[in-house]
């Protein structure tokens, strides 16, 4: 009989979920439960209820989410708030109904105010206005945190939340319009190299600063936080802010990032910054002191992570990477 915990990873095909499955397997876990979107519609409460009733899950990693860049958030705001809130509500509630005592909810650093003081501490949540371009998604993620806190308060569950900074790596989305900054740059520089384009134009001045975390580091942090003894976790949080930031504690300018990506891809043309386009938030850096106090720090330097990400792009997306 398998005495390991029966672990459900919701969103196992996504960027973070697939990395969590890799990490769990690397650590010797074999009792891992997954379902594709076709097999289990997480916005359907009846399906989720039947899944938890029949599968007898011990732990849940809630990594399923509808995600995207600025264009996607602006174009599909109703889907971003509805789908994410329904998935979270169904999974958290039905996990509780089925007696699941431990769950890890994965959020996003966009939950914090647009102009939050830097670096951003957990207690800055709900202290100011959100970034308008992704407010529906951010509101859904805030609701997810509060769901976990509320079930803990009322029912004594051990539901935890981690808030990652900008993630990248194997399994990323390289869509030309709906991707985040690193996969977008990887694709653009790769295509420019393949076509011999003399220059690549980057929106904005290149001066805004951003923090980036390799997705396998995020997965390692997630498993680490999930497996902490409850007393240790609760001693490093407080009842009003039970979530924990996950990042590197370091940031780079978009200009520096673009140069790093171009070097990894091997593109030798010019990088031009279009200052007529908006820059967005000047800086977005998470304070990761709580996570460090718990004994975990990121281990993948940005240049190495970018090399791995580009290798994964070439290996797993041949239709996009073909010259």
Automatic annotation (TrEMBL):
Annotated EC: 1.1.1.271
Keyword NADP recorded: yes
Positions bound to substrate: 188, 203, 210, 279
Domain NAD-dependent epimerase/dehydratase: 7-234
Pfam families listed in its UniProt record: Epimerase (PF01370)
GO biological processes: 'de novo' GDP-L-fucose biosynthetic process
UniProt cross-references to InterPro entries, sorted A to Z: Epimerase_deHydtase, GDP_fucose/colitose_synth, NAD(P)-bd_dom_sf
Membrane-crossing segments per the record: none
GO molecular function, one term: isomerase activity
Active site: 137 (proton donor/acceptor)
Keyword line: Isomerase, Multifunctional enzyme, NADP, Oxidoreductase
Annotated catalysed reactions: GDP-beta-L-fucose + NADP(+) = GDP-4-dehydro-alpha-D-rhamnose + NADPH + H(+)
Domain of life: Bacteria
Binding site for NADP(+): 11-17, 106-109, 141, 164-167, 180
UniProt key word Iron: no
Pathway: Nucleotide-sugar biosynthesis; GDP-L-fucose biosynthesis via de novo pathway; GDP-L-fucose from GDP-alpha-D-mannose: step 2/2
Site (Important for catalytic activity): 108, 110
Recorded family membership: Belongs to the NAD(P)-dependent epimerase/dehydratase family. Fucose synthase subfamily.
Function: Catalyzes the two-step NADP-dependent conversion of GDP-4-dehydro-6-deoxy-D-mannose to GDP-fucose, involving an epimerase and a reductase reaction.
PANTHER family: GDP-L-FUCOSE SYNTHASE (PTHR43238)
HAMAP family: GDP_fucose_synth
Name used for this protein in its record: GDP-L-fucose synthase
Taxonomic source organism: Massilia horti
Lineage of the organism: Bacteria, Pseudomonadati, Pseudomonadota, Betaproteobacteria, Burkholderiales
